[in-house]
From TrEMBL, chain A:
PANTHER family: SEPTIN (PTHR18884)
Entry similarity comment: Belongs to the TRAFAC class TrmE-Era-EngA-EngB-Septin-like GTPase superfamily. Septin GTPase family.
GO cellular component, one term: cytoskeleton
The keyword Cell division appears for this protein: yes
Name of the protein in question: Septin 9a
GO biological process: cell division
A GO molecular function held by the record: GTP binding
Subcellular location, record wording: Cytoplasm, Cytoskeleton
Recorded superkingdom: Eukaryota
Source species of the chain: Oryzias sinensis (Chinese medaka)
Lineage, broadest ranks: Eukaryota, Metazoa, Chordata, Craniata, Vertebrata
Coiled coil regions in record: none
Automatic annotation (TrEMBL), chain B:
Alphabetical UniProt keywords: Cell cycle, Cell division, Cell membrane, Cell projection, Cytoplasm, Cytoskeleton, GTP-binding, Membrane, Mitosis, Nucleotide-binding
Family stated for the protein in its record: Belongs to the TRAFAC class TrmE-Era-EngA-EngB-Septin-like GTPase superfamily. Septin GTPase family.
Protein's recorded name: Septin 2
Organism the protein comes from: Oryzias sinensis
Gene3D superfamilies reported in the protein's UniProt record: P-loop containing nucleotide triphosphate hydrolases
Pfam hit, one: Septin
Main location: membrane
UniProt key word GTP-binding: yes
Length: 338, 338
């Protein structure tokens, strides 16, 4: 298995040791000490992560979230009733948790979308979701343009939308294409093949290839988007990921004894599926992508690209309204003038 | 091979039934099985597994783009299967496109029309002068595939089954059952049965074994009844498992054996179908067809698609038929004298 690094590199300050060792390096200034300062600040502040999960009922969304964060973070775990009825319309429900690991604090918000894709008529079922995402951008924008702004604007923007594809083994459904086509323009979409333990390895590879083809032919850019690769190194790493998505995942919050170790898995009559075993499913890759390697990048793309696009559009809209009222032709204005 | 398509031999057969049995064996059997369910639930694989054949040699699975354009199709494939001198003319009616569209509101009108058309045709043939070679293309049984991923029936499942339960014998089947642990399977079965009850859906009920049947048969019937809805896995691939070749699915964590009753209900489904083929035909004739017929005749004579006028009451037999030309005005009520 690959070894993924913890997002914040641990540097011990070299300067503090230099006088102890009586070693003075004349070519060394100590600029890299800033990394340590940043790390300390990040640890003090903690950070926010907002993940939305979208998919039909029964695709294991809640279980997967619980598995990802090794705690009961999903809405289902907090529900009083054990049995759930499919809602008649789509609902957007957010649950936030404070998670701490090795002194690092994270405020995780899981946004669930029950009712999506469950009706007989699912036309326009992406609309409430699109609206929610845009509403978060709007809330952030409103705070940003305030005269007296908060020091840290609360970030409720959706950083990542995990889209659950049912494991049919054939190809994407019209609903999948419609949703991802529209939403990939406003949010980072991470498609996953849900409940992948129903596919043999052969079927899985065929399915993934078919999905990638259909994403391509429909012009759907899922995360990590090619156009946002920053440099050659980025491109190399992300290209490898793009060749593997969508990740075929299996979730579980139950532990079983396998070869003397306690592992998260699903026990059947013909074997036990180990969730974190990459020979069984690709959960570990998803976890590493979302949490261990690309979390910051996902947030950066959300704030510097998706949010900025929203902001420009909104500001131009109000500009248009203002200039129309003032009689100034539109083309004189651009985003920079704001 | 150990798989036998024949009626299981019973230790003692009441004489009358035995005679009917012998006569039917000479004539051969006709059976029409309709298969309904969303794409990707393994319907084709299961049908091929059930009858040890490849009904779909040149199958091309359409991509999402094609699916958007398509409405529900009806595709009937007929095979002649002969085993130990018994001929079975099996027609499998597929319904590709069912449940695929974003809006599945109208996806079953085509299916219902098809079922009604077969009744209509039979009614017409039965009312005709030459009734020697009436072909029975009526749908004797409908396997309805339920996704194993959900928490029970979906709204579409409920609506569809209610729309056809008075026209055809509905046998609900839980597809791709290897996606479920044993506990999940039992829970899902219970949930589905509760929902079937709750919504007043009439599924096919296996008749209780008669008192003169042998104990084995009685026990078999009891087990079958207790296992509904059957949770099945299909496959035509031979896998090596525990030193022998089995039909199954190979996963990194183990092999699911299609014909292992501990792994899934495939054998039960096959046994049920084979031992109840006769009963399924009888119920179709005595219940569903008669309902259609009386309903149809009560509505009065009108031009059928063949251009003949159907008698208005079962007692009435026209002395001669008048060949009425099909005109453009469809609402033409014709009354025959005499």
């Amino acid at each position: 298995a690959q070894c993924f690094e913890f997002p914040l590199p641990c540097y011990s300050s070299p300067i503090s040791f230099s006088f102890i060792n009586h070693l003075v390096d004349f070519s060394y200034v100590g600029i890299d000490a800033i990394l340590e300062q940043m790390r300390r600040k990040a640890m003090k502040q903690g950070f926010e992560l907002n993940i939305m999960v979208v998919g039909q009922s029964g695709l294991g969304k809640s279980t997967l979230m619980n598995t990802l964060f090794k705690s009961k973070v999903s809405r289902k775990s907090v529900l009083a009733t054990s049995q759930e009825k499919i809602p008649k319309t789509i609902e957007i429900k957010s649950i936030s948790h404070d998670i701490e690991e090795k002194g690092v604090r994270m405020k995780l918000t899981v946004i669930d979308t029950p009712g999506f894709g469950d009706q007989i008529n699912n036309e326009n079922c992406w609309q409430p979701i699109m609206k929610f995402i845009n509403d978060q951008y709007e809330a952030y924008l409103q705070e940003e343009i305030n005269i007296n702004r908060k020091k840290r604007i609360p970030d409720s923007r959706v950083h990542c939308c995990i889209y659950f594809i049912p494991p049919t083994g054939h190809c994407l459904r019209p609903l999948d294409v419609e949703f991802m086509k529209r939403l990939s323009k406003v949010v980072n979409i991470v498609p996953v093949i849900a409940k992948a333990d129903t596919l043999t390895l052969e079927e899985r590879d065929f399915f993934k290839k078919k999905i990638r083809e259909e994403l391509r032919s429909n012009g759907i850019d899922v995360y990590p988007q090619k156009e946002f690769d920053e440099d050659a190194e980025d491109r190399m790493i992300n290209e490898k990921i793009r060749e593997m998505i969508p990740f075929a995942v299996v979730g579980s919050d139950q532990e079983y004894q396998v070869n003397g170790r306690r592992l998260l898995g699903r026990k059947t009559k013909w074997g036990t599926i180990e969730v974190e075993n990459i020979a069984h499913c690709e959960f570990a890759y998803l976890r590493d992508l979302l949490i261990r390697t690309h979390m910051q990048n996902i947030k950066d793309i959300t704030s510097s690209i998706h949010y900025e696009m929203y902001r420009v559009r909104r500001l131009n809209e109000s500009n248009t309204a203002v200039t129309q009222a003032n009689g100034i032709p539109e083309h004189h204005l651009s985003a920079h003038e704001m | 091979s150990s798989a036998s398509l024949l009626f299981l031999s019973r230790a003692s057969l009441p004489t009358q039934r035995h005679q009917v049995h012998r006569k039917s064996v000479k004539k051969g059997f006709e059976f029409t099985l309709m298969v309904v369910g969303e794409s990707g639930l393994g319907k084709s694989t299961l049908i091929n597994s059930l009858f040890l054949t490849d009904l779909y040699p040149e199958r091309v699975i359409p991509g999402a783009a094609e699916k958007i354009e398509r409405t529900v199709q009806i595709e009937a494939s007929t095979v002649e299967i002969e085993e130990r001198g018994v001929k079975l003319r099996l027609t499998v009616v597929d319904t590709p496109g069912y449940g695929d569209a974003i809006n599945s509101q109208d996806c079953f009108s085509t299916i219902i029309s098809y079922i009604d058309d077969q009744f209509e045709r039979y009614l017409h043939d039965e009312s005709g002068l030459n009734r020697r070679h009436i072909v029975d293309n009526r749908v004797h049984c409908c396997f309805y595939f339920i996704s194993p991923l959900g928490h029970g029936l979906k709204p579409l499942d409920v609506q569809f089954m209610k729309a056809i339960h008075n026209k055809v014998n509905v046998v609900p089947v839980i597809a791709k059952a290897d996606t479920l642990t044993l506990r999940e399977r039992e829970r899902l079965k219970r949930r589905i049965l509760d929902e079937i009850d709750e919504h007043g859906i009439k599924i096919y009920h296996l008749p209780d074994a008669e008192s003169d049947e042998d104990e084995d048969f009685k026990e078999q019937t009891r087990i079958l009844k207790a296992s509904i809805p059957f949770a099945v896995v299909g496959s035509n691939q031979q896998i090596e498992a525990k030193g022998k070749k089995v039909r199954g699915r190979l996963y990194p964590w183990g092999v699911v054996e299609v014909e292992n009753p501990e792994h899934n209900d495939f054998l039960k489904l096959r046994t049920m179908l084979i031992t109840h083929m006769q009963d399924l035909q009888e119920v179709t004739q005595d219940l569903h067809y008669e309902n259609f017929r009386s309903d149809r005749l009560k509505r009065g004579g009108r031009l059928s698609s063949h251009g003949y006028v159907l008698p208005l009451s079962p007692a009435y037999v026209p002395v001669c038929f008048q060949l009425l030309p099909l005109t453009d005005s469809r609402a033409q009520a014709v009354h025959l004298d005499g």
